[in-house]
């Protein structure tokens, strides 16, 4: 018999993190950009972000692969790996958007429409994924298995979509970065 899991109340943490992360990202979007000197090529940061997003996508697929085989230990490990790359992504994302002016997509039709469709769904679902992932992981940690499964069936595909479209958006916009 496995030991019962100690139940923790993560709700305040989930609420605080969900609000804080979304508010920081929104404020950055509207804030005037830093215009002092930066001693490195800031356009390296979104490239790192695309790499982090690709890793998140692969880690999530691995977590899914293992849970479908009922391997909870490996499921948990890959979920933590996905949270780590997502955290690194956030760190680099915030730094980049603090430093860089907005890059405008320079492609013509029909790519322009495709780009904006992917971008808008990516941004909207990325905001939603913050509380969803946190609620899902806390239900997992507390081993509330049925409730966890119920929400995870939304979180997993949406998080996969957000991480993959993060890479696609980068690949589409990167030719339009200054100096490319
Ligand atoms: C955001 C984080 C997580 C996501 C997206 C996620 C995703 C999933 C998915 C898609 C399933 C399969 C649902 C189904 O059968 O339809 C599942 C099941 C499960 N997950 Fe997670 N998971 C997460 C975190 C965790 C954590 C941290 C644990 C802790 C050990 C955990 C433990 C489990 C367990 C015990 C099951 C049920 C396995 C079974 O059917 O026997 N999950 N999860």
TrEMBL record:
**TM region(s), chain numbering:** 12-30, 50-68, 80-99, 114-137, 158-177
Organism superkingdom:
Bacteria
Q: Which Pfam families match?
A: DUF420
Sorted keywords for this record are: Membrane, Transmembrane, Transmembrane helix
Q: Which PANTHER family match?
A: DUF420 DOMAIN-CONTAINING PROTEIN, HYPOTHETICAL MEMBRANE SPANNING PROTEIN
The protein here is known as DUF420 domain-containing protein
